[in-house]
Each structure stands twice: as C-alpha cells, then as structure tokens.
Specification:
This protein is mainly α and 58 residues long. It has a single domain, classed as Helix-loop-helix DNA-binding domain (MYOD Basic-Helix-Loop-Helix Domain, subunit B), CATH 4.10.280. Helix 1 runs antiparallel to helix 2. Pfam families: SpoOE-like. This is Aspartyl-phosphate phosphatase Spo0E family protein.
Length: 58
C-alpha cells in the first residue's frame, strides 16, 4: 500500500475512532479494537516512511 493510501486510511480510522469513542465511551470493546487497528496502520506508515527516507538496506 502506498504512503498516500496509508495516510487516507489513517485519517478515516481516526474519524471513526473519535465517533465511536463519543458514542460508546473510551473503554468499549469496539473503540479498543478500532484503536488497535489504527495503531497497526500507523506502524505500517512509519515503516514505509522510514524505508523511503533511509533506503531498503537500513
């Protein structure tokens, strides 16, 4: 997935997370699961950006 596609996915997940948290509370299982999904996408974004700036052999 491209960096731009990851950015778009991150923004969409953030919006969904905020909406869920407002409706269900921060400790609802759905909110925790959405937060974990966002964390995974953020980690992938970080890996890709790092790979682009440092090269594939770092």
């Amino acid at each position: 997935m491209s960096v731009e596609a990851l950015r778009n996915q991150i923004e969409e997940l953030r919006k969904e997370l905020v909406d869920l948290a407002e409706r269900m509370g921060l400790t609802a299982m759905e909110v925790v699961e959405k937060s974990q999904k966002l964390d995974k996408v953020l980690n992938e974004y970080d890996r890709q950006v790092h790979r682009q700036t440092k090269g594939p052999f770092v």
